[in-house]
């Protein structure tokens, strides 16, 4: 069915968006399930609470050699299902197809791809400067696409609705400068230190893509009407350059009881104005009274168009997040952390909702820190993390993996992998 293949290719093309991520974190934070916003030190602070730049740190100067963080996730299928149905070569039976379809929610199959690379950064007490490549992509395909792929169009009179196609992506560079101002108290005070911080961010947007409208249907023949109707239209706005600003505002407090509390507003007043090569792209495909032959539809009966026209500048908003964190050191070599995030917007890689997380770090083994954590809610749902590192005299390497959707490899619906290397003096 060439007409359906064209429509499916149009929908599938939305998943081929750039690897990107707006707000991700370093490998130490990844290994603690992003629960350590109250216990970031040095350049770990990047993207989190700038006030933690005032916390005591092992180094007076730190340089980021290279840091990578990438995530992939889908809301429906886990690795166990993939191994069960797509690696054996066996033909899918009716029960298998039903099981696969039952794992896809009515809202559709959603996938997310995130990433970040920090190519330059340095830390001084109470100050940091970093340059990072960032972005985010998300796509949602209708459940009906999976139904057609699994069962074909064998239900008489069925109308498949494709109107809930959605997708967006962006990529860019972010220059961040963070500053903390500490206020230290005497030994008799409940508070040892209170600090406020601010990070100013300049965003250079490289590319943007967003589906602004999608409509489409695929109508099966009936007992009295043996023809198929196909109709689809997708409108997107794109840009190839823009710029913007954002601010992170933070507060951190340390008590004499080994507690650290953190509060941060991320991406306050954050926006990107896209003004270079801004376009509206409109894709359509249609066919009326189509008859199916041995080779599918008659190709000449399918009409498809790809229209592009210039448009004016437009503005998108960075995702605003309220972050609250707590860290406690019951022993010198053990740190316990907890975190709560509230996301307010879904634009540019954000999410609406609450995420809570907890984690720990044990540094009792020489040169080899051990970390673990769990996160619930948020963009990726229930997630479980593990991390370690290698701490030499001046070279610090951290590695972490985080499983999204399940604890075991078979139940995982996605992964976050992170690596950080820094020089500290």
Give an overview in words:
The chain has 425 residues and is mainly beta. It has one domain: monomeric porin ompg (Porin, Beta Barrel). Helices cover 10% and strands 55% of the residues. The chain is built from 5 helices and 19 strands. It has helices at residues 2-13, 27-31, 79-86, 94-102, 143-151; strands spanning 62-74, 109-124, 127-141, 159-161, 166-184, 191-219, 228-239, 242-255, 259-274, 279-290, 303-310, 314-317, 321-331, 334-344, 352-362, 370-377, 383-391, 395-404, 414-424. The longest helix has 12 residues, at 2-13. The protein is elongated and about 90 Å long. It starts with a helix and ends with a strand.
Present the secondary structure layout.
Elements: H1 2-13, H2 27-31, E1 62-74, H3 79-86, H4 94-102, E2 109-124, E3 127-141, H5 143-151, E4 159-161, E5 166-184, E6 191-219, E7 228-239, E8 242-255, E9 259-274, E10 279-290, E11 303-310, E12 314-317, E13 321-331, E14 334-344, E15 352-362, E16 370-377, E17 383-391, E18 395-404, E19 414-424
Antiparallel strand pairs: 1-2, 1-19, 2-3, 3-5, 4-6, 5-6, 6-7, 6-8, 7-10, 8-9, 9-12, 9-13, 10-11, 13-14, 14-15, 15-16, 16-17, 17-18, 18-19
What's the gist of this structure?
This protein has 425 residues and is mainly beta. 10% of the residues lie in helices and 55% in strands.
Counting structural domains, the number is 1
Count of distinct strands: 19
Overall CATH architecture: Beta Barrel
Give the radius of gyration: 25 Å
Distance between the termini: 64 Å
In DSSP terms (H or I, runs of 4 or more residues), the helix count works out at: 5
Largest sheet, described in full? 14 strands, antiparallel, barrel
Beta strand %: over 45%
Q: Per the principal axes of the C-alpha atoms, what is the gross shape?
A: elongated
CATH class division: Mainly Beta
Category from helices, strands and their pairing: mainly beta
Output the strand order for the largest sheet.
Answer: 1-2-3-5-6-8-9-13-14-15-16-17-18-19
CATH topology: Porin
